[in-house]
Amino acid sequence: MKPKIKLPVIVEGKYDKIKITSLFDATVITTEGFGVFKNEKKREYIKRLCGNGVIIATDSDGAGALIRGHLKGVLPPDRVYNVYIPQISGREKRKKEDSAEGYLGVEGMDAETVKRLFEPFVTGDTAAKCVMTRAELYGYGLYGAPDSKAKRKKLCKAAGLPDNLSAKALCEALGRLYEKDELIKMISDIGE
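Above: the chain's sequence. Below: its structure in token form.
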């Protein structure tokens, strides 16, 4: 029996949906890529479904970030939970060529990575494991310093997150995936 995710999951395409439903019992909605930008009925459907919350799991490339940003602009911010797919170079098996940015999408992720990313939503515990603030990022030299962008990229790589996250999104993702002591060690390790 597959683990159940109670909140609906939004992904970009049908192969992403196949990946998620192969691992979980979940309601999965596709955006048809950029199609959600023009499809008012789809956006209204997504809004109706997010009464108790919705999980957005788009690819870690620029297109995925645009789609995520669009959805976050039309949905109540307190009901949106983000799952960030790591930036792993590669090509999905069904494709003949790499994607524009050369990263695997949701469909290309290995099952264990996907299970780890969705674990908080299977247990029903949508609360963050810890709170990481932008002020703390600043204190660690990961925000507001001349070399902070390079340090954040290292941290994102170590944490298995896309390196194009805003400071706010990075705080959210780190807090959802890691305990505070794990984060401090990871930050310490990238500084060495």
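The mean pLDDT is 87.
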